[in-house]
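Q: Predict the assembly, please.
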Amino acid sequence: MFFLFPGSCLGMQDHEAPPRSIKKMKTKFKIRRFDPQKDQAPRFQEYELEVPQGATLLDCVNLIKWTQDGTLSYRMSCRSAICGSCAMKVNGHARLACKTQAKDVIKNNLVVLEPLGNMTVIKDLAVDLEPFWEKVEKVMPWLVNDEEVSPGVERLQSPEDFHKIDAASTCIMCASCFSDCCSEEVDKEYLGPTALAKAQRFVCDSRDKKQFERISKLSKEKGIWDCTHCGECSQRCPTDAKPLERIVELRNVALNSGVLNNNGARHAKAFVDSIAKSGRLNENELPVKSMGFFNIKGLLEILPVGIRMLIRGKNPPLIHHSIEDMDQVKKIFREFGEPK
Amino acid sequence: MKFAFYPGCVAQGAARELKASTEALAKKLGIELVPMPNATCCGAGVITEQNPVLSNTLNARTFAIAEKMGLDILNICGTCQGVMKKAQKELKESPKKLEEANKSMAGSGLEYRGKVKVRHLLNVLIEDIGADKLKSMVRRPLKDLRIGAFYGCYALRPGELSGLKDPDNPDEIENLVRALGGEPVDYPGRLRCCGFPYVMMSKRNALTMAGNHISAAKENGANCMVTPCPLCHLNLDPYQPESAKIVGKELNVPIFHLPQMVGLALGISPKELQLSKHIIRFKESLTQSR
Amino acid sequence: MLQHDVVIVGSGLAGMRAALEVCGELNTAIVTKVYPSRSHSGAAQGGVAASLANEAKDDNWELHMFDTVKGSDYLGDQDAIEIMAKDAPTTIREMEHFGCPFSRTPEGKIAQRDFGGHSRPRSCYAADRTGHALLHTLHEQVMRRKKDLTIYSEFYLLSLIIKDGVCGGITAMDIKTRKIEVIRVRSVIFATGGYGRAFSITSNAFASTGDGIMAAYRVGLPLQDMEFVQFHPTGLFGQGILVSEAARGEGGYLLNSKGERFMEKYASSRMELAPRDIVSRSEQTEIDEGRGVGPNGKAIHLDMRHLGREKILERLPQVRQLGIDFIGMDMVEEPILIQPTAHYSMGGIPTDNDGRVIIDDKKTRITGFFAAGECACVSVHGANRLGTNSLLDALVFGRRTGKTVLEETRNKDFPPVNEEEEIGKVKKEISDILDSPGTESMNDIRNSLKDNMMDRCGVFRDKTRLEECLKAVKGLQARFPKGKIMDKGTNFNTEIIEAIELRNMLDFSEIIVTGALAREESRGGHARKDFPKRDDVKWLKHTLAAKAADGGIELKYKPVAITKHRPEERKY
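A: Predicted assembly structure:
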């Protein structure tokens, strides 16, 4: 930019970063570098940069690449938060570099940049996205509706029905949620938040004809019930897609369309039953009902922890008491038609 | 200081030591805890999966009970706190949802007006009492304790509801640890999920998470951990022997409930704090009074 | 050597839409420098035009056609525009059938709204991210056809292979490994997007570096109307990122340093909602005459504060967020700084109405080579594109081109390709760049180019500045071979890609400036201060710029197709 405004107070090296008056501050950028072809292990490299006021984090990374170290590799394209290329870990959490004001992530004059998690590094901040895409492709991510429709008319969809798929449709496939997903971290088979949010977009699309088939498949192992509710995905999501909320909606569809033959759905049902009955959770009943009464193997697996807790006097009281004023609670449940 | 005390299901069930230690600590700090015998479960984010309106309504009822008592709610469970904050947000943002909830309470003499504050013990300790005050009350500095804080998901996310200054990189528990004379230990995983919510669905994965975090804390020098959420505690403590097997490491790291840690520093006896109820026990030398 | 019946270069709307027509029957591949969902079509916000008449019952294709012809300042080919306007409703409904999440009217039809230059509310939209919704819908269909369609993601186009007027394939580099591949084909479709990146202030993605058009130019094909670049009036200052027309639609004011709503002087009836080229010129006039705001007076204020906090949060949350995220300014608190931003490339590879690349006014073809979308010049936008016609162009002509290619490729043989020779050529080019003396900074060259183009070949142009600009561009071209490359590695080497992109930018900039210098009139996006009037007698014609035998640029012209509407003065 300083070329555009010769003699201005801007210390900008390139016009990708915005102008305005500048407060000089040198910031240390600690960037994790790794070229598997050359390096034994990842290492941190430090760069110092005067961050122009109003600069985004992507502006800063570009300044580093273009004025200090051309060997730094990362992805970027639209720089307006719609293409999803420039997601990276900033101070430990996934973010879109272009959508982040540098000043918001500089702590004690330091920013730490790392590649996204849950994927292998190709080089520096660029990771291999193939496993990510494979999972998206697994959820049949397209509208299925084989009914004849004339090219002269659109299918109708009410604004309310559009609203049900609006949030998921904002996903830009930046993989931030996938990067920081706790469940993905321990289980590479888990479908993951991006794919599940994408699935919600079709399960809840009034035009789609495969809702039951989709939700049945998604209810199997490694699907909707393998999310821990940790909220990382929604916290990291730079759009309104908010995967956790979409996963909750999918679970709602599963529970209300009778796809119940799995631990997750049984657990949810048992939970609701317990509150409906006594206002509080019956911790003695819940594991048994979740596993299923006839799931001997599952039940045996939880036996040791039960015994351990019993010995320490940590077992839930054997006689489960209801809360007071339970009639009020029962009335509320009745009003909402629960438990079904 | 006086609160409508909402211990939550787990502190009245499998983690009764949490309720007991909270009560002991409250006494020490001069906090009056008024029971809410008619409050329901918060739903733990599970009821909402079956029926989001029902879940919000049950919480609205709990809020209404507290409003009737004229008291703010004190939570000691990170999950209850997170779920309630979220319910408050949704009810605040949608007058329709609020109306619906109040309608279904009609006749019970309860109405939620959006006034009650929902506080977690952690926030009360930091904001109302303050690290300095706590520091001045310390009778048994935690100087041998190198403590890994485990925040728990619901205390952190969504960040805007957490009440923490920087939920992406919080230091509230660490500051408490310091004030109490202990040494906070930073480790990867302190802000991650313990795995408890799906321990019944995907036990191996759930315990891998717990095992990884405990082992990371230990590798970074922790000799114990602390958590403000009894659900995390369930996965970190009672399941720890299984977690150790799954991650193939010796763990043996005792886990404090938050009020146990604070109470210990303030001179409450380990017995009163019911430390002996834990599966992984503290070495006596670390917790004995002096 | 890789081999496919059809290779489509580019994975935006035009490329993926064409692919869906071709794949299945023919062995088809898409080569893209990004991932399909990351193509720049996704950045379009406002909508896509089609006379569905869901909002205005009296809308029809004739009105759409006339608005487009008028918007083009009569440089658009009317036969092509007629096709686009007629095809639009079917094409958009087909996207709906594919699953595109369009916003809806109360009765459930595709919602439509007003847009600059259109006489009826015919912009079909998906909230304020229409391009994104369309792009992802096509990507979904492409994933559905996975078995029939090979995707080469993060493959960078290096050259087009043409011998004796017949296209035999392309060469491309796998960005992940730097490996160069020859892909032999029966037909190639270019859908490689625009060339806005040569301007310092642009709404374009980093990827919009005119790679396709330059590959065509290098093998001797002409480029059409390259001097026509659209400047959008509301780019975020310094960044150029687009602030949607919705901001002005909701009642935003454009203010100069005196706090005046200066549009009163330039378009008193439409004010801030006059067409894009007019508003951009008005802003630039204020800036040039010393009434700009911001650093060195190079910006204009977009003031939304009179709407009040609540209305801004309710109606324009995304636009407000844009200011906060990208330049750290909150429009609730203060007017935000904006400026004209290079937005759309009207020029490109000349094609007929079915995507066939043609090289002269006799419609002489290059066998097996097709183009669609922003890289092509059909021409439906002429001298100035109307908002919401770009997504439409990409979809309509992507689809038509796909159908043509399917027809024409079925019974066509693979032309012979000399793999070694083709690889040798591009390898040498790359090694020249890698082995340069490294005495020049690529960053400086790139910045100089962009500043030159913006300052001297931007919203306003004149002979002196264009000549200075041409000289500067040539100087930069001479410095380029000495540009420094630090990354000599083969693993995800983006520095070498950026260098080749810079070479493309330098070369098409020369073509833009040369065309602009020759065109001594003002028309649409091309505004000459020294020739402020449109001149239909001399200049109602398309520019064709091709490489001359001496390596210079040779300009030829071809007539505009005028079928229904005689040119008249363009007043709003």
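The longest helix of chain B spans residues 52-69. The beta strands of chain B are 2-6, 32-35, 73-75, 118-120, 146-149, 183-185, 224-227, 255-257.
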